[in-house]
Each structure stands twice: as structure tokens, then as C-alpha cells.
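_Full entry_
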Amino acid sequence: MTHGTHSYMRPRGEWDADGVLPLALPTGTDGYEYFPRWEVELGAGRPVAGLITAFPENERIPLAADSVGSIVVMPIRAGDTWWGHVGFDDARADRVWSGPEIEALRAAAGIIGAAVRQAEAAAAISRRNAIIESVAAAIPLLVVTDRWMAVLPEVLQSLQTVINARSAWAYRVQADGTARLVAEVVAPGESPASPLGQVASVVPERLADLAAGNALQNVTFSNSPEEELAAYALLGMRSWVVVPIVAGGVLWGALGIDSRDERSWDDGEIVALQVAAAAISATMEREATGKRVRQLEKMDAVGRLAGGLAHDFGNLLGVVLGHAELIRGDTGEPTTRSDAETILDAAVRGRDLVRDLLTFSRPRGGDLEETDLAALVSRIVRILRAAVGSGIEVVLRFEPGLPPALTDPDELEHVLVNLVVNARDAMPGGGRITISGAISPLADPLADPLDGRAPAILLSIADTGTGMDEATKERIFEPFFSTKPEGLGTGLGLATAYGSVTAWGGTIEVETELGVGTTFTLRLRPAEAA
């Protein structure tokens, strides 16, 4: 086996002549360390043979201590991999190994190598089948629940157990390009990689690899690979494999397992792990689709009611506004004039409320145009920064060359202001708001841009605020629902945003966690797909 830059051997079998003591068993878990020269020669497929008097001193002294006078060692290869060695040794210092003896040893090494490869292939198939069976057993847990995160630890537990891994874990990729640990299961006696919720940096190349659907094994993810590998070593992690979790055509996160053995992961294991990730993805998409359908039904019912009320209320307000204008214009009495202006101010606020009600009760979808999201956000970013104040940082992250989206730009500005102000209110002690623009990966160029199999333009607003509990998250798009103190909000901001985005043929989704923050993601149609 190989650990780091060194190779080690452990005895698998030994025969000794009468009166000759066997080699002492190694005391460490790794075994005996190979001599550097032997590691090079055997790793290259060449035998090591000769009288030890001709060997380097670092080899001669320990061999002589074991009463070895001459030796021949032949590498065993399992396919393209150096697996170990088989050898003869003799106490006589003048023993010369003949050609037939060396060829016999070479033939024995070949037979052993073929047997090892066959056994490893059978073990890999058995391991792959066991993983698939484990995933198949866990899938019903995902199917019967609308809270897939609640059963994720059970899925990870089944993977960790059947693969005999050190640990199994899942990370959530966040809008700022970092990854947050959302679940981990470790073998008995092992230590978790980090506390749940811990955020780790990930270099963009690795995120791109995962977004492309690639499985990654035994690679580093941070900008400090040496520190990362040192941290792994402290945990006993010597190998690992990571597969992406993609939901709605977007990289949601990653599923991974790791081992105390330094090894490569075979195709069967990786495919089985990808099956687990696909099952999680399918459950997430089913849950998200169900939520969207329920939300649309709820919004439609409330919208029809609110629309009817808004018309009647608007007519009444028109009468109030007209008469208040007449009173203000006709009176010379300061007190009466002041009262009329107070009525006008209240009526204008009521008129704005009616406008918001009509926005989601009768969404407008006809005034759509190509919208350069990066340019639009850059144009209003000063307004956004002024709205949140100096204690909150507003960061823009847009992919270069982002295609235009199909929106109503004026309404989009209104939506962005609503979302940014909400983010500000969730960070009374200050924090960071990240506005990001990206395109989701292409999976099926003929698919609808919003069904997760074709590209869509993603506009995300992420904050580092207090986050929301599940009960609040379920209701945030409801008209008149507000978490603000009475009198400080109408409860129509997010409902209006929802009405606008869905009127453009898009969707708006939210990810949140208490104490971590909230991310709203607008999934918009590319203008070219219209």
C-alpha cells in the first residue's frame, strides 16, 4: 500500500526452511516501509536481485540483521497496478540466483497478480451491488416524505455502513461559491470533519467540475491544498470521492465518502454513489415542484379575491382623492388645509397598496424585453447601497458574458429593491448581501428553460442575516403575511415580487437557515428562448 510519498508492505504468506525464524510482524498499522530503491524498481516492474554485499548500506544492514545473504524479489502486478512482491532469500552470502529460478518466480508473480485482479474485480462488483441495494433501500425514505433533509442522515448512514467508509457527508453550495456542511455520518470512533453548518471555501475550478457532472476523487478543493491535506491527515482521511447533487439543472451541492485507506475508487462505486445523489436530486425537485404548485394555487385564489377588493377600494380612493383635492384647493383655513393634505397622503399610500394588489392579482406579462441583468443591477446598485446603509456590504458577482433574460426591467428593479430591503431588515447588526448572476448548466437543449433540463438565467440575492424557520419560509410569499412589527410593512413586497416573476414565466425560490442567512433565486427565461 502507499501512504503519502512512501510505499509499505505487509506479509501475506511466508515459508521458511527448518531452523530459520520468520520475519517479525510489523508493529505499525502501515507495515514495513519499502527501501526507496526497491520502490522505484518494483514499481517499474523490474526485479531486485543479488548478493547483499553489493547492496547499498541502508539495505544491507537491516537485511543482514535478518540473516539474509542473497535475495531475489519479483513485483506482483494486478493489471496496471503494483500490488506487492514475491521473493526468495538465502542465508549464504555467495548464493547466485539462476535464470530458471528467476523465471519461475516471475511466473509465480504473474499467477498471483491475475488471481488478485480477479478477486479485486469480484470484490468491486460485490461492493457496487451492495451500495446500490443500500441506496434502493433508502429511496423509499425519500419518496414518502416532503422533508428530504430529515432523512438525509439515514441515507448517508447506509452508504457509510455498506462501503465501510470513515464518513459520508453532504455539502450545500452557496451563492457566494462557498460550501456548507449540511449532514455527516461517521463510523464509530471516528471524528466528524467539521461542525454542521461549517462553511468551507471552494476554488471555482472544482465547482465548475461538479456543475459539469464530474465525480472528483482524491483532489483538494481549497486555495490552500497543503493545509487541507494536513487537516485530512489529522482525521485519518487518506482517500475520498465526491459526486455532484444537481437539482433543477443547478448545482445544489455534493455527496461524498472518505476512507482511511489510500485507494482509488472504482467505476462501480462511483456510479452507485451517483445513484444516491440522483435519488436525492429527484426528491428535491419533486418537493420543490409540489411547493410551487401549492403556492400558485394559493396565490391564484388570494389574487382573485384581492383583485376584486382592489377594484372597489380603488374606486373609493378615487372619490376620496378627488374630494380631498377640492377641499385643499378651496379652503383658506390652515387647519382644514393640513387635514386635507393628511387625507391625501393616506389616500396616495392606499393607491400604492392597490397597485401592488393588482400586480399579483392580474400579473402583466406583455411588456417583456431583453434585460441585461448585470447592467441593470450595476445601474441601481447605488440606490440599493443607499437603501441598506453603511453597515451592510453589497457585493455583485456576475458571470462574464451572461445572456440577457426576459423580464420587465421596471418591475425587476422593484423586485430587487424589495428583496434587498428585506435582506437589510434581516441583518440589524450588519452583514453582507451578495447579488449573483449565472446561467444554469445545459442538459437538454430542447427542454423548457424552467424545467431543470435546459439553461435558465439565475439571479440570486443572498444575505448573511438571521434566516427563517420552516414555518415562516412556507408563508413568505403569501399576501399580507409579514414578520415585521405591525405598521412597518404591508406584507405585499414578496407577494408582489412573486407575482411579477411568475408573470414573466419565471420562478422565485428561497433557501434559508436560522443563524446562517437566506438566498432568494429568480430563475428567468433566457431572451433567446422566447
